[in-house]
Amino acid sequence: MPFVGGNWKMNTDLASSVELADDIVAGCAAFVDRCDVAVFPPFPYLQVVGRTLGHHGILLGAQDVCHMPAGAYTGEVSVDMLLDLNVKVVLVGHSERRHVIGETDDLINAKVLAVLDAGLDVVLCVGETLEQRESGRTKEVNVHQLMAGLRAVTPDSMEQVTIAYEPVWAIGTGRTAGPDQAAEVHRVLRASIGDLYDDDISESIRLQYGGSVKAKDAAGLFARPEIDGGLIGGASLDPEQFKAIVAAAVDAASQEQE
Ligand code: PEP
Question: Cα–Cα distances in Å, from 104 out to 107, 142, 159, 247?
């Protein structure tokens, strides 16, 4: 089953987050038996968005989490707080947190372990910058981020893990990796997961692509068997675009089964 997530980043306000969640339920609830769909609203709106999503099967996600369980960590949000709000899945290692906030591989790994330990699912994001791509380091950077993020993650926990390949040069820039470029990195990531774990895990793990995906790009990307869904930023703020992207994931999955 494919997996499409909508990362709202630091957008919406109280009223518009509810409106967007309502529209996403109206557009996407019919697909949740054929595609996992998650939305990642800003922390302050998690509760109200969770209520709006209700029991229609769209998953509530968090954009980040603290690696520590509780205590004197001003401004942070713990896994238990997310569990209280019925969050099911957490983004970790998004490029904006790596490159704007300055999160390290070690911190990202600690967050992955905290999320898994709490029984939540994690979407671990990896991706190279333009400079890294142009200097021929795409494979090395992605494999490094993958291995560092998954350090000490047991094979049993891997069913809670999704990897999102998000080239930094494509995020929020309007530049999308073409299906061939994305599929090439997905093959590298899947092979590394096979080396780290085993063939079953590397075949069953879902690899999302993210980076300026719009409805018009979705069918081409999702037609590639290497790509199991998408992590969508800007286009997830438009319920019609988001619905079309989810529908494209469902179509591609049904064609793969034929
Ligand atoms: C993202 O935030 O993960 C993302 C891919 O953003 P955008 O689709 O806007 O590039």
Answer: 5, 14, 24, 35
CATH code assigned at 29: 3.20.20.70
Nearest-atom number in ligand 1 for the CA of 170 is 10
Tally the domains of the chain.
1
Residue 198: C-alpha distances to residues 144, 154, 163, 202 (Å): 18, 12, 16, 6
Residue of 95, 101, 232, 241 best suited for mutating to test ligand 1, as the one with most atoms within 8 Å of CB: 232
**Which ligand 1 atom is the nearest neighbour of the CA of 166?**
5
Contact 227, 254 (CB under 8 A): no
75-123 tens-digit pLDDT: 999 999 999 999 999 999 999 999 999 999 999 999 999 999 999 999 9
Q: Is the dihedral of CA 57, 9, 251, 126 positive or negative?
A: negative
The answer to whether the CB of 167 is under 6 A from ligand 1 is no
> What does the alpha-carbon distance between residue 71 and residue 132 come to, in Å, rounded to a whole number?
38
Q: What digits encode the pLDDT tens for the residues 193-236?
A: 999 999 999 999 999 999 999 999 999 999 999 999 999 999 99
Residue 94 CA to residue 117 CA, distance in Å, equals 20
Which residues form the catalytic set? 94, 166
Atom of ligand 1 nearest to the CA of 232: 8
Domain that holds residue 79: 3-257
